[in-house]
Design a protein that fits this description.
Layout lengths: L2 H12 L14 H11 L5 H9 L2 H4 L4 H8 L1 H9 L10 H17 L4 H25 L12 H19 L3 H13 L15 E2 L6 E6 L2 E5 L4 E6 L5 H16 L9 E5 L2 E7 L3 E3 H7 L4 H16 L13 H10 L1 H4 L1 H12 L6 E3 L8 E4 L2 E4 L6 E3 L2 H17 L1 H8 L3 H16 L4 H24 L6 H20 L6
Parallel strand pairs: 1-5
Antiparallel strand pairs: 2-3, 3-4, 4-6, 5-6, 7-9, 8-11, 9-10
């Protein structure tokens, strides 16, 4: 007996007597349908077996330990990716959103194609049932589900589709999933996604890494092309959104490169830019650190150009204060609520400003093209006060290096000492002053934001370690002193 046949027998026994919500169909028909869908995408017996067993932990007394013992670690790992955490003391309708968010985080952070296949097969099987019942019952169908809000149901299935698209968009199963989503929630996706679509596939083997940003890396592909490769958890929608923001910024006068095509690089998306005979400012500084003040002046002039653009409601961009308040809520709010409220009040002082802000402004995101700077990475472009941009620079070039010079050296490609010189020279040119008190004031206001950002970073992965808590305490003390010193972040 092979592993698939054994899984069918085991699942049939474990699901015996159980029925699905729709029309009381025997439960076993669902995992068998999932297996059938998987067989259209792969002949990997372990992936198909995981599809048969994917509901064992959630719906029966079976355990991951037993699955691993019977079917191996890989099958157990795939089943785990599809098994939601249970909250036995609460009604399932109350925990629906948190269960979905927790499980989506597993999918979002997985590079395993098998995980994505099992998710696709399961959700397609579910949507086949929902779609059929929706045809018969209409909107009344939502009353039969744990989550009765069709908007939330759409959010869930749409997010799954976006997270698996790059890996599985060529499969018939993915195309069918999109058709069912668009049938139940019309116009959720471009109808082209339900038809055959081939992305140009490229390899970056042997290509030079030019720099790293918050959302990916930038490579020199050939003499004319640069490719930005987005991180694994970025969807096609994220790439399209960044390109759209870049076009809006270009029209407003920001010197930026516009992508002319989206490609696939393994299991990640890439955006192509025509940037001929150029290198990043980071590369230029690493090659000639003695010229750091010259490049700081160029960057300061570029920043002043961007910040000289005011945005009206017709060209709306996100407000940077949303990101800054997220730093507070995700960090200092867990340590000291009163201090967090003072930070929020300071952030509110810059909320009315409609100045254009790049949001990820550093030397790795600026190319020198024929002596002129050209920006890329427009995914964080927003509106707000320039102090947010300066805080990003201070965070990148000074604060992160306080924890270890290697961060700046690895990220920027030049020494921490050069990095600090860059920040100081940039600030002098940007503010057009040599006044030490003025430079100190702006840096301290930037430090308010940096402290909240560092605390959020140290807490982001969960409960901080003892060493991390010591670092948090240092930033809390620094923040406490600064919020008492200033009543606004405006300069």
């Amino acid at each position: 007996m092979n592993i698939v046949e054994e899984a069918i027998i085991y699942a049939t026994i474990m699901h015996q007597g159980k029925v699905r919500k729709f029309k009381n169909r025997p439960f076993i028909l669902h995992p068998l349908e999932v297996a059938e869908i998987l067989s259209t995408m792969t002949d990997d017996a372990e992936i198909i077996t995981a599809g048969i067993l994917h509901d064992i932990v959630e719906s029966t007394d079976g355990t991951l330990e037993e699955i691993e013992k019977r079917f191996g670690k890989r099958v157990a790992y795939l089943v785990r990716s599809e098994s939601e955490n249970e909250y036995p003391d609460k009604d399932r309708s109350e925990t629906w959103k948190i269960r979905k968010e927790e499980s989506l985080s597993i999918l979002r952070n997985s590079n395993d194609r098998g995980v994505k296949m099992v998710w696709l097969a399961d959700k397609l099987s579910n949507l086949r049932s929902i779609s059929g019942m929706y045809s018969e019952m209409g909107e009344a169908i939502w009353d039969t589900l744990d989550e009765g809000d069709p908007v939330m149901q759409c959010w869930y299935y749409k997010t799954v589709a976006e997270l698996i698209e790059l890996s599985l968009n060529r499969t018939g199963a993915f195309k069918e999933l999109i058709k069912h989503i668009n049938f139940i929630w019309p116009n959720t996706f471009d109808s082209d996604k339900a038809r055959y679509r081939k992305y140009k596939e490229i390899s970056l083997d042997g290509c030079t890494l030019l720099g790293r940003g918050a959302k990916g890396e930038v490579y020199r592909y050939d003499d004319e092309l640069v490719i930005k490769v987005f991180n694994q958890n970025n969807t096609y929608k994220d790439v399209e959104q960044e390109i759209a923001l870049a076009r809006k910024a270009f029209i407003l006068g920001v010197p930026t490169a516009i992508s002319f095509g989206i490609v696939s690089v393994g299991d990640r998306y890439g955006a192509m830019f025509e940037i001929v005979d150029s290198e990043t400012v980071s590369k230029s500084i690493s090659r000639a650190p003695g010229q750091v003040k010259t490049y700081a002046r160029i960057m300061a002039e570029l920043a002043r150009t961007i910040h000289g653009i005011s945005v009206d409601d017709e060209n709306a961009f996100p407000n940077v204060t949303v990101r800054l308040k997220d730093y507070v809520e995700g960090g200092i709010a867990h340590e000291n609520r009163e201090l967090a409220q003072k930070c929020m009040a300071l952030i509110d002082t810059i909320a009315p400003f409609n100045t254009l802000i790049h949001g990820d402004f550093h030397t790795g995101n600026v190319f020198m093209v024929k002596g002129e700077p050209l920006l890329i990475d427009m995914d964080r472009i927003s509106t707000g006060h320039p102090i947010s941009e300066i805080s990003d620079l201070y965070y990148t070039y000074v604060v992160r290096g306080e924890e270890g010079a290697s961060f700046v050296e690895d990220f920027m490609g030049f020494s921490y000492e050069t990095s600090k010189k860059f920040y100081r020279s940039f600030l002098k040119h940007y503010l057009q002053t040599e006044d030490e008190n003025r430079l100190k004031e702006v840096t301290e206001k930037a430090s308010v934001i940096c402290c909240t950002r560092m605390i959020r970073k140290l807490r982001k992965k969960g409960r901080p370690s003892e060493e991390e808590q010591k670092k948090i305490a240092v930033y809390v003390d620094r923040l406490t002193e600064l919020v008492e010193k200033y009543d606004t972040l405006v300069f």
